């Protein structure tokens, strides 16, 4: 059964913002008393909290999918939607958070530190919040934006003052059990320790923590054995103690050879920028198992060579506790000096993040396409505005056009060579695709149109009063002309008939 997990991938989904509401207040004798649609609630955040009581990432190993609550929809009578519920994820102190590309996002070094790893979406504005002196009754509201969704990698790096390093079965677990109240698993076979163990040591007035790192072998920095998985737990340690087994029965093993192998692995392991390399940190030598007579003789033999290299050497026995007091006080001196040096360092200046100017709010990138160039608009504001737009509502689309024009998108498209009818995409990937028409620009507030429509998108074919009057006069004139023509034809026909009648009567009289 897995009891210790120091690396896990979380699949996070922050809450979605609620949509704004389109509503009109109705009162007695005032059926249209003004907009009163409320705003949508913001989506919940996912927050990481550095908790000293948490020592492993095991809970996230079993349930890596976490989601925050969605924001509620806005309602009439200026009622805003409910805020989405935040969720807090406690992680051990020393957890490094990385994004999907492996870049470090934050290092949770301080107890109680909080970091919003997945921000929730923003709630959409209702039509009451969108009303202005020029747009008194908006027929649309903004939609809520989706929350952040993606994967993050949590990597635990043990925060300890001293790290015990050495070959498997060198006695590191026995040493930490003898120096502190820690009770790690101890056995006489290699790789007994499968995860780092922490112990608290009290040396006089100084208290410090000691980490028992799983055994290293030759090639650990290249992935052999368990060393590569746990060498990162040494990164945060101030001092190293090389625990050398003086009673090993393996052929080809001796304290000097073991030390050279471990030093080679420490030197080959890369540390993050700004940290002291492992090989350059304060190091002590602990010659272990001197309660065995042969081990005592071997320790006396190799001690001068180790001291000639510049190391402080301590002969110890985890069984009889010989030499442990001297080792603990020597480590306490190193820790005290290091803490004094850290306290004397100037405080890290605060990083002030200032809002970017309008010029940096978006970029227009020209991409090649099968049927001509494609102009892609990238930026937080344009993408968010597209997410907030209800494309089933013409007035909302016109409002989006106004916002983009005021941001300077129109001028930038002209600058990069876009022509009317060019394909424009807002956002990465598929995004929102449309054919750009420069005529769809500003002054939506000054245009009168039915609610929910924009006259720039759908030209209204309804005739004005003057046009109807002119058409009526043309129709009446045409009718009068037609009547006059008919009357002229009737008179002509009557005259012809009268002429024929007279001629016929004269002919009859001449015949008589």
UniProtKB/TrEMBL annotation:
Checking Pfam families in the record gives:
DUF1967, GTP1_OBG, MMR_HSR1
Q: Where does GTP bind?
A: 166-173, 191-195, 212-215, 288-291, 317-319
Question: What's the Enzyme Commission number for this chain?
Answer: 3.6.5.-
Where is the OBG-type G domain positioned along the sequence? Answer: 160-336
Alphabetical keyword list: Cytoplasm, GTP-binding, Hydrolase, Magnesium, Metal-binding, Nucleotide-binding
The record's annotation in Gene3D superfamilies points to: GTP-binding protein OBG, C-terminal domain (3.30.300.350), GTP1/OBG domain (2.70.210.12), P-loop containing nucleotide triphosphate hydrolases (3.40.50.300)
Localization, per the record, is: Cytoplasm
Per UniProt, Mg(2+) binds at: 173, 193
Highest taxon, organism lineage: Bacteria
Where in this chain does the record put each OCT domain?
354-438
Which cofactors does this gene product need?
Mg(2+)
Q: Where is the Obg domain?
A: 2-159
Task: Name the family the entry cites.
Answer: Belongs to the TRAFAC class OBG-HflX-like GTPase superfamily. OBG GTPase family.
Record note on quaternary structure: Monomer.
Main function: An essential GTPase which binds GTP, GDP and possibly (p)ppGpp with moderate affinity, with high nucleotide exchange rates and a fairly low GTP hydrolysis rate. Plays a role in control of the cell cycle, stress response, ribosome biogenesis and in those bacteria that undergo differentiation, in morphogenesis control.
Q: Known PANTHER family for this protein?
A: DEVELOPMENTALLY REGULATED GTP-BINDING PROTEIN-RELATED, MITOCHONDRIAL RIBOSOME-ASSOCIATED GTPASE 2
Please identify the protein, giving its name as recorded. GTPase Obg
Organism, as annotated: Microbacterium rhizosphaerae
Query: Taxonomic classification, please?
Result: Bacteria, Bacillati, Actinomycetota, Actinomycetes, Micrococcales
């Amino acid at each position: 059964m897995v009891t210790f997990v120091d690396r896990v991938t979380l699949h996070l989904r922050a809450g979605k913002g609620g949509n704004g509401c389109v509503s009109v207040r109705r009162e007695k004798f005032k059926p249209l008393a003004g907009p009163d649609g409320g705003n949508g609630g913001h989506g919940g955040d996912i927050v990481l909290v550095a908790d000293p009581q948490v020592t492993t990432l095991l809970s996230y190993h079993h349930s890596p999918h976490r989601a925050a609550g969605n924001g509620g929809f806005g309602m009439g009578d200026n009622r805003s939607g409910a805020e989405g519920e935040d969720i807090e994820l406690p992680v051990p102190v020393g957890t490094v958070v990385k994004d999907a590309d492996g870049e470090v996002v934050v290092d949770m070094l301080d107890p109680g530190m909080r970091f919003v790893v997945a921000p929730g979406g923003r709630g959409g504005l209702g039509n009451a919040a969108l009303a202005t002196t020029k747009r008194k009754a908006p027929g649309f509201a903004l939609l809520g934006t989706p929350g952040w969704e993606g994967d993050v990698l949590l990597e635990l790096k043990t925060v300890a003052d001293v790290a015990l390093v050495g070959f498997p079965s060198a006695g590191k677990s026995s040493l930490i059990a003898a120096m502190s109240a820690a009770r790690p698993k101890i056995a006489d076979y290699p790789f007994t320790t499968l995860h780092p163990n922490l112990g608290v040591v009290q040396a006089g007035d100084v208290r410090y923590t000691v980490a028992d790192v799983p055994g290293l072998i030759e090639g650990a920095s290249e992935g052999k054995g368990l060393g590569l998985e746990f060498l990162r737990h040494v990164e945060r340690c101030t001092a190293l103690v090389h625990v050398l087994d003086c009673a090993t029965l393996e052929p080809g093993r001796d304290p000097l050879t073991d030390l050279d192998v471990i030093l080679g692995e420490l030197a080959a392991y890369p540390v993050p920028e700004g940290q002291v390399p492992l090989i350059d940190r304060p190091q002590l030598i602990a010659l272990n198992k001197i309660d065995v007579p042969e081990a005592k003789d071997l320790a006396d033999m190799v001690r001068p060579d180790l001291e000639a290299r510049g190391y402080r050497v301590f002969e110890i026995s985890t069984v009889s506790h010989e030499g442990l007091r001297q080792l603990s006080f020597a480590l306490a001196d190193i820790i005290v000096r290091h803490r004094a040096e850290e306290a004397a360092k100037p405080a890290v200046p605060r990083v002030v993040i200032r809002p970017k100017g309008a010029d940096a709010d978006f970029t227009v990138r020209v991409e090649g396409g099968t049927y001509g160039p494609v102009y892609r608009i990238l930026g937080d504001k344009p993408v968010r505005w597209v997410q907030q737009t209800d494309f089933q509502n013409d007035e909302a689309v016109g409002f989006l056009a106004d916002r983009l024009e005021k941001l300077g998108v129109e001028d930038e498209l002209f600058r990069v060579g876009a022509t009317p009818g060019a394909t424009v995409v807002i956002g990465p990937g598929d995004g929102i695709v449309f054919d750009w028409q420069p005529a769809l620009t500003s002054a939506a507030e000054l245009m009168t149109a039915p609610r929910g429509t924009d006259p720039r998108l759908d030209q209204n074919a309804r005739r004005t009063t003057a046009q109807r009057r002119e058409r009526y006069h043309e129709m009446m004139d045409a009718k009068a002309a037609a009547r006059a023509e008919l009357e002229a034809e009737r008179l002509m026909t009557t005259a012809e008939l009268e002429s024929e009648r007279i001629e016929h009567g004269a002919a009859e009289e001449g015949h008589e």
